[in-house]
Amino acid sequence: MALPLLLMRSVGRFSFFTKRDRDTRLKRAWWGFATALTAGALVSSVSRAGTAAGFAVALITISICAWTARERGERFALVGIGALALGIASLAGIQLMVASLSGDAFEQGVESRHLLNQMSWAGVSSFFPVGAGLGSFATAFPRFQLEKFVGFVEHAHNDYLQILFELGLAGVVVLACLGIAAIAQCARLIAARKQRSIANPATACLLGTAAFAIHAWFDFPAHIPAVAWAATLLLAASTHPALVATRLSTRIASR
């Protein structure tokens, strides 16, 4: 979730509580190193869904920064960060990630997740519209667990299905409100492209939240308090009017 913020900071689109004239190339280089290190750590986690989500929003961020670049050096900086990230990832165990994406392990993982989604959906249909109760997935799921699916299942590995499983119609309302809020804010930020100011802290925060949303389809980040709080704060920050305008956010940071 931090990659979009780190990428934009590395190319100098905004500064963290530092005056603009003090934002030197050396400072940007250090932020670029931090960005590459974060990307390498993500790869070393061997989380296929997490890595895919992080790299997807990182590519969008890079595209936005390249499109709105005011100097050629910004594009070179983005290329350098990407190359450094690949170098760190190769040292951090990219081979394990590649291995997890090929062979029987990947196919079995996809098949098990698909089966888990089917069983979870059976629970959603059975308990709808009242739901099984918040926090009851682990105790209610065995009722729908097939014999060939061995083991204790604490989470659905799909936060959206688990919300519907536990909350029913109320879960639909919660997801709909979050989705509408995110789409509305995305529309506001896209409208800002007329001033070519879409590369701003608010966009970076929203992209960080998007990484969380993608990951939540394959795992259970919403059930990890620290991750859930970070995503909530990023979504809230993306709606702050002062963060939409890069120049305004820079003045605020320099006070």
Description:
The protein is an all-alpha fold and 255 residues long. It has one domain. The protein is built from 13 helices and no strands. Helix 1 (3-10) runs parallel beside helix 3 (48-67), helix 3 (48-67) packs antiparallel against helix 10 and helix 6 packs parallel to helix 8 (159-167). The two termini are 27 Å apart. The model is unreliable at 246-255 (pLDDT under 50).
What tags apply to this protein structure?
255 residues; 13 helices; mainly alpha; single chain; disordered C terminus
Write the layout of secondary structure elements.
Blueprint: H1 3-10, H2 25-44, H3 48-67, H4 72-92, H5 94-100, H6 103-127, H7 137-140, H8 159-167, H9 169-191, H10 201-215, H11 225-238, H12 241-244, H13 246-253
Helix pairs in contact: 1-2, 1-3, 1-10, 2-4, 3-10, 6-8, 8-9, 10-11
